[in-house]
Every structure is written in C-alpha cells, then in structure tokens.
C-alpha cells in the first residue's frame, strides 16, 4: 500500500535518489530537487511512499487554471508525476492515483476537479490515468514542451 505525503525538507535525500529511464525524462521531472527549487507558492510538491520508502513524486498546482485556458477555475492540477525507475511496474502509480481524489478532497477541499496533461506519446502514463478513472474528453493541449498532450480530468466529490 502507498501513502501520499506532502514533501518536506526531511525528504530531500529521498527525492534526490528518484530517477526515471532516459526515454521518460522528456515527459517528467528528470531532476526532482531542481524541480522543487523552481516551484512557486501555488505548486505543492508531494511524495509517494511505499514500505516507508519514497518511490515517487508529483506536484499539485493550485494555480493550474490560471495558466491553462482549458482548465476550469476550481481545478487542481497534477504535474510531474513520476515513479522511480527501480519501482515501476509494481502498481505504485495506480495506487497513488486511486488515493489522490480522496486526499485532494481532504487537503484541498475548495477544488472541484483534478486536471492534468499527458504527452500523446506517453502511452503507459495515459493508460494508467484512464484506468484510474481520469476522463479524456478528446481535446488536446498543443502547448506541451515535447508535443501535443491529452487533457484528462477527474471530478471530485
């Protein structure tokens, strides 16, 4: 079972060890400590923990709708989700995504939905999101850094 936890400086050494395969680096944060250092006050880093070990990372972006015209006003954005390459294929992403709606409702109760974009070439991630209940309404975000992205959402509540 995995646990979602807000990132704190106590986890700095743990997140520094996270890595993804070279072909995945274009789709997510290749350097988690650097990504954390670049965050603004609206972007809240989180870790995914399994068996007392940090196995993944993601950001909840409270200002997602401000920077993405496809997103409704009260949408909480998910960014840079990754599972460490040594822990991929164990179901940790799926477990975290299944827990995320209830976590978001408790910790970020003013939001009505979760939104994210996933690169059209990142089929494993896309399939995982859809399997966990995220809905693809058929629209694409064309402003992605490495090509078009599917826009997925999950209604909270």
From TrEMBL:
Keywords: Transferase. The keyword Transferase applies. One of its GO terms (molecular function) is acyltransferase activity, transferring groups other than amino-acyl groups. InterPro entries: Acyl_CoA_acyltransferase, GNAT_dom. Residues 2-157 form the N-acetyltransferase domain. PROSITE patterns: GNAT (PS51186). Gene3D superfamilies: 3.40.630.30. It comes from the Bacteria. Signal peptide: none annotated. This is GNAT family N-acetyltransferase.
């Amino acid at each position: 079972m995995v646990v979602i936890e807000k990132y704190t400086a106590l986890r700095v050494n743990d997140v520094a060890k996270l890595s993804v395969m070279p072909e995945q680096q274009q789709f997510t944060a290749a350097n988690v400590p650097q990504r954390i250092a670049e965050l603004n006050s609206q972007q809240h880093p989180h870790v995914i923990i399994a068996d007392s070990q940090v196995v993944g990372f993601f950001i909840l972006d409270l200002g997602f709708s401000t920077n993405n015209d496809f997103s409704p006003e009260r949408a909480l954005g998910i960014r840079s989700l990754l599972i460490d390459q040594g822990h991929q294929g164990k179901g940790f992403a799926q477990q975290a995504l299944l827990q995320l709606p209830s976590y978001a409702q408790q910790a970020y109760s003013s939001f009505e939905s979760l939104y994210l974009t996933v690169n059209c070439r990142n089929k494993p991630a896309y399939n995982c999101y859809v399997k966990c209940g995220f809905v693809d309404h058929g629209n694409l975000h064309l402003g992605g850094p490495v090509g078009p992205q599917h826009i997925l959402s999950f209604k909270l509540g």
